[in-house]
Amino acid sequence: MVTAVTLNPCVDHTLMVSRLIAGGHHETVRTHEDISGKGINVNKVLRQLGVETGAVGFDFTGSGSRLRDCLREMNIPFAAVPAEGMLRINTKIFDMACSEMTEINSKGSPVTSAEVQKLIEVFTEALADTEILVLDGSVPPGVPDTIYRTMVQLAHERKIPVILDASGELMKKGLEARPEVIKPNREEAEQLLGRPVRNRQDAVSACRAFLDLGVGAVCLSLGKEGAVYCNSEGVWFSPGLDVEVKSLQGAGDSMVAGICIGLLKKYSGEEILRSASAAAHGSILLEGTSLCTADDYR
Fold first, then answer.
1. What is the 3-state secondary structure (H, E, C) of the chain?
2. What is the pTM of this model?
């Protein structure tokens, strides 16, 4: 089973507008509201692609059973740690004229040290049934930025491979535990390495810099320009496909799900990138935070 950790779940409120003008007046073309969070999105895609998956994370009780109900409807088991507070609200504005997404994300409700300790206990128990671990996304206030490093170490004690998709200090400290795969985007890679990623050559150089830090493989997403996958055996590039982009939300999480499938099936590096790219493109064909289906993936 693939276990995906989501410590900062949310409600994504997506607004689609014909053209976004700063300071202007807008009417929405359509709106979508979805229970989300990066790891939750990975869970959803994997379930839709027929892969057994489970979720681990905080369940903010002020929002009632919304998160639990969402996962239950998709038959995704949830190892939940109750926490006070509400699910955070993220607002996404999709500019249909240029296929760009503007995001306004909240930090989330704070959690206590006791709730963090309980989370580690629940997480450790969930590792017993885990073949691949996904650590994905931001954390609420109160969670230390070493949390992913700790989780990678606990997984490695049980010889469980880890995919890490985070930014800033969470990723920087997580890298210290040498996860098997990381999936930064261009901006995250630039921030972590302190240098620009302007073209494909820069992307390959960035991937190899991460390998030098002890990471097993890197999938560097370059938005509409495609993605690069690099491991000790080689480097591969997948261009962005010329498809109608209806939303960008969840494309990176879908890419992580595609990597999971590749690892489960022991694909080569090239085949892993094909799987990751297929899942990502399958999601951008759909509006809101609707995510890749089996037909789109095939």
1. CEEEEECCCEEEEEEEECCCCCCCCCCEEEEEEEEECHHHHHHHHHHHCCCCEEEEEEEEHHHCCHHHHHHHHCCCCEEEEEECCCCEEEEEEEECCCCEEEEECCCCCCCCHHHHHHHHHHHHHHHHHCCEEEEECCCCCCCCCCHHHHHHHHHHHCCCCEEEECCHHHHHHHHCCCCCEECCEHHHHHHHHCCCCCCHHHHHHHHHHHHHCCCCEEEEECHHHCEEEEECCEEEEECCCCCCCCCCCCHHHHHHHHHHHHHHCCCCHHHHHHHHHHHHHHHHCCCCCCCCCHHHHC
2. 0.91
